[in-house]
Amino acid sequence: MRGQWGLIAGLVVILIIAVFAVINVDPVQVNFLFGQGDWPLVLVILASVLMGAVTAGLVGMYKIYQLQQEIKQLKQEKNDHGEDNQKRRKDRKKETPPASPEAGK
User: Fold this and answer.
1) Other C-beta atoms lying within 10 Å of the C-beta of residue 65
2) What's the DSSP call for residue 36?
3) Radius of gyration of the chain (CA)
4) Is residue 100 in a domain?
5) Beta carbons of 27 and 41 less than 8 angstroms apart
6) Number of domains in the chain
7) How far is the C-alpha of 14 from the C-alpha of 44, rounded, in Å?
8) Which among 56, 53, 24 is positioned nearest to 40, based on CA atoms?
9) Is 37 a member of any domain?
């Protein structure tokens, strides 16, 4: 259900951007580092939205990568501590002498 609401919200945002872009079709001057040109404002808006989405996606992917590395590290530490605990239990069993049947009488 959450995925459906996300899809609906995304479609609403896309619709708002499309309406905003269609009503702004006047040509505007765009200055690049290497030159300038006259582009319709709709293309400038759509290109800006696309660049923002790509940037947000890349930042999100980087954050996911960092979290996956942290999870991997924590799992390794957990396994290391588990192995240490198993070794300690085995060592304790070796240190404690078996109870003799005469001790209980």
Assistant:
1) 10
2) E
3) 32
4) no
5) yes
6) 1
7) 15
8) 24
9) yes
Find residue 36's DSSP bridge partners.
31
Write out pLDDT tens, residues 5-53: 889 998 998 898 788 877 888 899 988 888 898 998 888 888 888 999 9
> In which band, very low, low, confident or very high, does the pLDDT at 60 lie, cut at 50, 70 and 90?
very high
Q: How many whole angstroms separate alpha carbon 70 and alpha carbon 61?
A: 14
Backbone angles phi, psi at 29, to 5 degrees: -85, 125
Q: Is residue 11 part of a domain?
A: yes
99 — phi, psi (to 5°)?
-70, 135
In angstroms, the CA 78 to CA 84 distance is 10
Q: Give domain status of residue 97, yes or no.
A: no
| Amino acid (one-letter) located at 53 | A
